[in-house]
UniProtKB/TrEMBL annotation:
InterPro entries: FAD/NAD-bd_sf, FAD/NAD-binding_dom, FAD/NAD-linked_Rdtase_dimer_sf, Pyr_nuc-diS_OxRdtase, Pyr_nucl-diS_OxRdtase_dimer. It comes from Cellulomonas humilata. The keyword Magnesium does not apply. Keywords: FAD, Flavoprotein, Oxidoreductase. Its cofactor is FAD. This is Dihydrolipoamide dehydrogenase. The keyword ATP-binding does not apply.
Amino acid sequence: MGREFDVVVIGGGAVGENVADRAGRSGLSVALVEDALVGGECSYWACMPSKALLRPGAALAAARGVPGAAAAVTGDVDVAAAFARRDVVTHQWDDSSQVGWVESTGITLLRGHARFTGERSLSVDGADGPVQVTARHAVVVATGSAAVVPPVDGLAEVRPWTSREATSAQQVPARLAVLGGGVVGVEMATAFADFGSAVTLVVRGDRLLANAEPFAGEAVAAALTDLGVTVLFGTEAQSVRREADGVHLSTGTGADLVVDEVLVATGRRPRTSDLGLETLGLQPGKPLTVDDALQVTGADGGWLFAVGDVSGRTATTHQGKYDARVVGDVIAARFDPRSSAADSPEGATAGDRSLDADAERAAAPWSRYRATADAAAVPQVVFTRPEVAWVGLSEEGARKKGLDVRVVGYDLENVAGATVHAEDYAGRAQIVLDEARGVIVGATFVGPEVAEMLHAATIAVVGEVPLDRLWHAVPSYPTVSEVWLRLLETAGL
């Protein structure tokens, strides 16, 4: 038997849930297809459990940095309690609460794996057999990404950890090798060092956090070293084998690195290999290229959308959810029969869905129907110690765009808020200025708990707030955010 809906969303993670919710608010009927846990990677194997694992070590470090509190810290991280708290955060990998929310919104949840059988048509293989599903108006692919295991000789055979195994671990390996110096690599190196593992971080390049400003990666590398992590730059595994004494990693330089587990954190790929994309003339296993309305550019007719990791535009949950809100609004305005031409993102009603006016809408850079922040104002937080938070363009990225750049930095320990925060507070803030326009196009913070400072910078970048106006945004005293005043003073205001 077939089922028909106005909109079908493939993928019930945080991004797909947001698309379905946003599109369904208009009254369109929406089906959400998920073959695993509703809530997806972020809820069970990424953002939420990883931060739960990192939090105990961060709290202990914060207490130890404050005279008067440090004396109360009498031990190290209680690993069993940390794992138990992680299990609470992930709801014991039980998605019933997420399912309850989906059902409460009027969205129809279809359990199973979806494959395209043609335009707007899918087969969903569920527990009771395949069901044919048709979308009257739109299909949204929100299937996320999966960890990549690089083609290193013997690596796959030793069954390495990925982020999934690391965040759901029930035991702490005595020796852990982490391959990769990106966000997952440095966060998990921090967490397992807190838990007592002898961690070795194997980095092919010459710096950590390659997408951040160089000083951020340097600070994290120094902190990991202080934590007892061995950081090997310019190194990569050439072969891997399991022997009686553990897993041997040969790097071609000196003796093998011998560990109990290997965590691969070298990148991710979009989950598009088994969706039947070839029936639409699209290439499986590749990102789905989209425009700023998140419409797949390789599919005719304006019915197919892709959002989140699967589009290759975003790699964070928060940015994916932003894109989800955009595409949900586009679909609601474009296909809701109650929408007027004035409301429609391309100036057309549901009966006349020509996309000819899309270019006119694109001229409004901050239209709610265009995901323009993906290019100008992507925020990222790394929950290491120190934390790293940045938004917008790095100095290098701004210069590559041909901007007239000036960089202004300030040490966080020199503001009054840092003095009262911790005895050994250290960190740095840096802004990237577009001199021609007099606005901030990028900002980076490194230091304890700087993640909570990032949104102010995000607002400044997205709002393109002129520096002479930003001068009148007075930071409270004594807080670490007083660094905004010092940055502007350093910039000459």
